[in-house]
Amino acid sequence: MKRKRDLAITFCIMFPFWLVLSGRFDLFHVTLGVISCGIVASFSGDLLVSAIGGGSLPKVARGFLRYIPWLLLQIFLSSLHMLRLSLHPRMRELIDPRIITFKSGLKDELALVTFANSITLTPGTITVFVDLDGEFRVHAIDSKCAEALPGEMEQRVEAIFGEK
Hints:
The chain is mainly alpha-helical. The chain has helices spanning 2-22, 27-48, 57-87, 91-94, 109-121, 143-147, 151-160; strands spanning 98-103, 125-130, 135-140. It starts with a helix and ends with a helix.
């Protein structure tokens, strides 16, 4: 019963995204969307819904809805920073790549994955390594990018998964 519920929830999350991203609403394409979302949900239904450990699904979903605009803003601001770095006359002096290591307080696997992917989505930083104990190694292109980690992003991910 739980497996069917997880599958249905995963399908209900994926299908609206499929509709919006495909931009095609005729019977043929909607049918393809139902079939493809059904296949993907059958393979991954237990990964998304069951992986949410710390909080209930509606609470985590609300947390993600609050987190995504903030993350998009951070991606935009980091893009501006990368643009400034690349166009600055002293670009070679300002770019100072480094690997930083830190220990995250996140416990949930999905929270660790969310945090690692958020770091990588933000221009100027790439998650190189993360383990289940929360140890992160991140490549940062300059000191400003390195100083921001783990910081507010980790706190917001903690809030999504109820680890705060």
